[in-house]
Amino acid sequence: MKLYLKYFSIQLKSVMQYKTSFFLTSIGQCLTTFFSFLSMYFLFTRFGSIKNYSFNEVLLCFSTIFMSFALAECFGRGFDAFPSIISDGSFDRILVRPRNEVLQVLGTKIELTRIGRLIEALIVFIYSLKTCGVYFSPDKIFTLALMIIGGTFLFFGLFIISAVICFFTIESLEIINIFTDGGRELAQYPLDIYKNFVLKFFTYIIPLAFVNYYPLLYIIGKSHNVLYMFSPIIACLFIIPSFILWKFGVRHYVGTGS
Q1: What is the distance between the alpha carbons of residues 109 and 74, in angstroms, rounded to a whole number?
Q2: Structure letter (DSSP) for residue 87
Q3: Are 75 and 69 in contact (CB under 8 A)?
Q4: Distance of CA 177 to the CA centre of its chain
Q5: Cα 43 from Cα 176, distance rounded (Å)
Q6: Cα(115)–Cα(123) distance, rounded to whole angstroms?
């Protein structure tokens, strides 16, 4: 942890050398989330509700998934930028250092500009809490916290899988973006508004439904199944197979020879 904090400090000092660029990029990230919010607002203005979900209920889903994604991008960006680490031979140096390679990859890129997206999502989150008409008892507050944590771990695990592919292809495959950026866009809404196969896929293959759908049903009172309260834990456990795949990739890594 001490080493990671050192990496964080270095990255922070680096971005603060160009404060204007940092703030403008952060604002750009904030606007990205804002335009997604606007598209949702106009959709509900036109149709009123979607499959019996109100605008403010969906906002709760929207804000938690965007906060999760922003946190995963901020601290897991090293895996997202892993193709360059492989192609320029930097991973060879990482492997010979007496520190865990995962920690070193994480420290290569900490995307602090994602704070703009996080702040925007947090504002929407606070607004949705006040307007969705739900009494937030301790169990529902606990469920909300698990949703954010579970979503962060899930996207983090997907970034790791994207990096694992680079061990065999040098470059990451765009198909992974279907589950990272695409998953974020899909999960703005409860997954049962889509076709049934979409809900099943994101339940049994990529456990996104355990972050934004099942716990949401419990929070807004559409289901009283207490197990839904703990469903984000399954998304957290997604990190385990991701790390197993990472270790598999490291064992099959062939150095550049440089």
Answers
A1: 8
A2: H
A3: no
A4: 12
A5: 28
A6: 12
Q: Is the dihedral of CA 197, 198, 200, 204 positive or negative?
A: positive
**Residue showing tokens 């509900």:** 44
Residue where the block lists tokens 């950026």 = 181
DSSP at 173: P
Q: How far apart are CA 69 and CA 75, in angstroms?
A: 10
Measured between alpha carbons, how far apart are the two ends of the chain, in Å? 30
Residue 201, Cβ neighbours under 10 Å: how many?
Answer: 16
Q: Encoding tokens for residue 188?
A: 């703005």
CB crowding 63-89: b at 16 or more within 10 Å, else e: bbbbbbbbbbbbbbbbbbebbebbeee
Q: Is the predicted pLDDT of residue 151 greater than 80, yes or no?
A: yes
Place of tokens 């504002």: 123
**How does DSSP assign 94-108, residue by residue?**
HHHSSS-HHHHHHHH
Closest alpha carbon to 72 in 172, 137, 162: 162
- The model's pLDDT over 63-105, given as tens digits with 9 standing for 90+, comes to 999 999 989 888 887 787 788 888 777 888 888 887 888 888 8
- C-alpha 54/C-alpha 58 separation (Å) is 6
